[in-house]
């Protein structure tokens, strides 16, 4: 029997790859953040993302470039890619929401849903399951949610104040926006032409109860690569996972 939700899963995506990556210097002095390679993986972050999207049924990707766009574009032109890729470069800064709208205008199927991901995310989980979650709830936008490990050791106490345990880098008690999204076709029209959608579009959809959060399954790998320390930690974690 044909799965009725399968036909509604996105086959197109936007990767936001225009950030300055200032906290990753000197790695980003000569390349944009998505072109940084996690030691031992043999591929830049965006190469991993394109492979992951292809595995999840995506055939077309729009990459929104900015900082050192020509370096990323040259790599995309020469790499053996598993999907069709189009690049866009803003002629002037549009903000995160405006940039997302500008990139979405180049998607090949404007009347179909789409994924989006930040260009500095290294993760693996089922986008198909996330898309089904989105469809079942009639959402306009769905955000993947992660519980990152906090960078400090935690102390556990009892009711009297005795220290009972030390926990090294425990998961956060709060869920955060993991930088991976599923959007319905009408979402692009709700984005600002300039500015930040997380201050405008997302709050409005939340008030309308059309914005949903999808917890990344327990045990799935997720990390945002923001600093040199993140590179080191990701290399250790991925090596331990055999990736």
Automatic annotation (TrEMBL):
Limits of the Nucleotidyl transferase domain: 13-239
Protein name, entry field: Nucleotidyltransferase family protein
Record InterPro entries: Mannose-1P_guanyltransferase, NTP_transferase_dom, Nucleotide-diphossugar_trans
Domain of life of the organism encoding this protein: Bacteria
